[in-house]
């Protein structure tokens, strides 16, 4: 089975397409779009409309790219910039309505755990 994940971060939207048959998923394609959302959102402020437009475009392109690589609809997650925005629900609804991709936010603790596990997997347990 080929699957895909979209990570909407503070600076980039990243796509990972992987073959997930059996054991460890094996990446087959990655792509990223630089949006620099963190530079457009003031602390405690909403995600501006022009930033939402760019986000919609990036998620739509990520979905099309995943489809070209034969992957299922992406699992899409947004991190701190969207999670903390007072217009978070509107941003999530807009992305889904305009792209068909349900975008979810991760709680900060879950995001931290996944980041830790990814770093450990990449660097190895002996890295300190």
From TrEMBL:
One of its GO terms (molecular function) is pyrophosphatase activity. Transmembrane segments: none annotated. SUPFAM superfamilies: Actin-like ATPase domain. InterPro entries: ATPase_NBD, GppA/Ppx_hydrolase, Ppx_GppA_N. It holds the Pfam family Ppx-GppA. Residues 17-125 form the Ppx/GppA phosphatase N-terminal domain. Signal peptide: none annotated. Belongs to the GppA/Ppx family. This is Ppx/GppA family phosphatase. It comes from Streptomyces rubrogriseus. The lineage of its organism: Bacteria, Bacillati, Actinomycetota, Actinomycetes, Kitasatosporales.
């Amino acid at each position: 089975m080929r699957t895909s994940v979209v990570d909407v971060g503070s600076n980039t939207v990243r796509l990972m397409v992987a073959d997930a048959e059996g054991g460890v998923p094996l990446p087959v394609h990655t792509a990223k779009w630089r949006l620099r959302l963190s530079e457009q959102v003031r602390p405690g402020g909403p995600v501006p409309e022009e930033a939402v437009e760019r986000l919609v475009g990036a998620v739509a392109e990520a979905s099309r790219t995943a489809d070209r690589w034969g992957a299922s609809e992406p699992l899409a997650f947004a991190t701190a910039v969207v999670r903390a925005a007072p217009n978070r629900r509107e941003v999530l609804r807009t992305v889904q309505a305009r792209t068909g991709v349900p975008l979810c936010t991760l709680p900060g603790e879950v995001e931290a755990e996944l980041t830790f596990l990814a770093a450990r997997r990449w660097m190895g347990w002996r890295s300190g």
